[in-house]
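Fig. S4 source data, part A: sequence.
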Amino acid sequence: MGRPPSVAIVGTRGYPSYYGGLETAVRKLAPSLADHGWDVTVHGRRGTTRDDDPGRDLRVRTVAVWALERKSLSNLSSGLASTLRLLRTPPDVTLVMSTAVGFWLPLLKLRGVPTVVNTDGIEWERDKWGRFAKAVLYAGAWMTARFATDLVFDARAIERYWNSTFRRSGHYIPYGGEPHPAPVPLEGLHAGEYVLLVARFVPENTVAEFLEAARSLAAEHQVVLVGSTGWGGGLDDDAASLARTHPSIRWLGHVSDEATLNGLYANAGVYFHGHSVGGTNPSLVQAMASGTPIVARDTVYNREVLGETGVFCSPDPRSIEAAIRSVMEDPDARSRMGRDNQLRAQSFFTWEAVCSAYEDVLREALTARGRPT
């Protein structure tokens, strides 16, 4: 009997990490691959994970690599450090979770290592980046389209974009969610009576507009803010100021405890989702799986995921406030929306289906190296 196929996962903060959607996917995918006989190694940046994390699967090996801790260079530098390691000890296939690593894919191709790349969102359209950073990110995507063995798109709209812009096809694999019935995790909160925001504090997630709407919403409803910029200042300062001046507003910063976060989703009266640039967003899918009523910014990505089960609004404070009030003040609508969201998540967005689809793509990529599947 031959050795198990080996896969290296690169392009995220590491395993297990609770930072964002890509890290959530790795946290689900790595143990699933190990369950199915894969030899799994996850590369991550130094200091971003804990060896004693209780959620760690000991079958998954980890490698900590050097990175420049700058928001525009972290993925690029850690991707290079991971690539240099992989050139020395190549796996059978590499799963890349960031197109910023695209610059280094030619090296892996020369070494004979097939690569499957999750294209994630359209990163170069995010407002947080300057002109030069956007150009670099676009170049990384172009290199990915040119040199990746295979591609994964987390939304049909992202797939269409890559088809038309880079002339590359691939596989549609969204993110998953899991229902986690749980009590309200924080003292002073009451089930169904608070409005929840979970987002990285960047402009394209409509955070500034939501914070403005929260000033008025807080007169009748509790508002819970989860997230931060990751670098301090700006929207972090605005959220902290709101929490100090409005007793009904609570800013929790980044929450890495899954039980706490799942409890917040499951008991929210409304979850507001303001993301505008990415494809299928794990926070949105988890809120759906939790049976939470959702008000979302009106984008092609959010409509693709929610279908007819959500309420959509424009990215301005008045529209956000009006949409949230209309749902919060209608218990029957909240009950119906929560039920419909959960059924949709169970039909289209489960981690079991997501992990199975990733394994199928990775096994296909093995043929590029001549390994039996």
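Fig. S4 source data, part B ends here. Residues 6-176+351-369 form a domain with the Rossmann fold fold (CATH 3.40.50.2000).
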